[in-house]
Specification:
single chain; 80 residues; mainly alpha; Helix Hairpins; two-stranded antiparallel ribbon
């Protein structure tokens, strides 16, 4: 799995693949060289998931409740 392959995955797909890697490594049935290979894939998936979460957090931070209780973009509010 290349870096570009990882970058096209949704958060959910990346987490699913990461869980499978963790399960495989936890089983102890994977040869050393294969373990190293899938560990590297897992590290790339982890970084991808962290990036996706940071992006989502930034989007959520831009949303604030207006005086009427409706969600509005932070750019649309005035705190004067």
């Amino acid at each position: 799995m290349t870096k570009q392959d990882v970058s096209t995955l949704s958060f959910e797909d990346a987490m699913s693949r990461l869980e499978k890697i963790v399960d495989a490594l936890d089983s102890g049935d994977v040869p050393l060289e294969k373990s190293i290979e899938i560990y590297e894939q897992g590290a790339a998936l982890q970084r991808h998931c962290e990036d996706k979460l940071k992006q989502a957090e930034m989007r959520v931070q831009k949303i604030v409740a207006g005086q009427d209780g409706k969600a509005v973009s932070a750019e649309d509010t005035s705190f004067e």
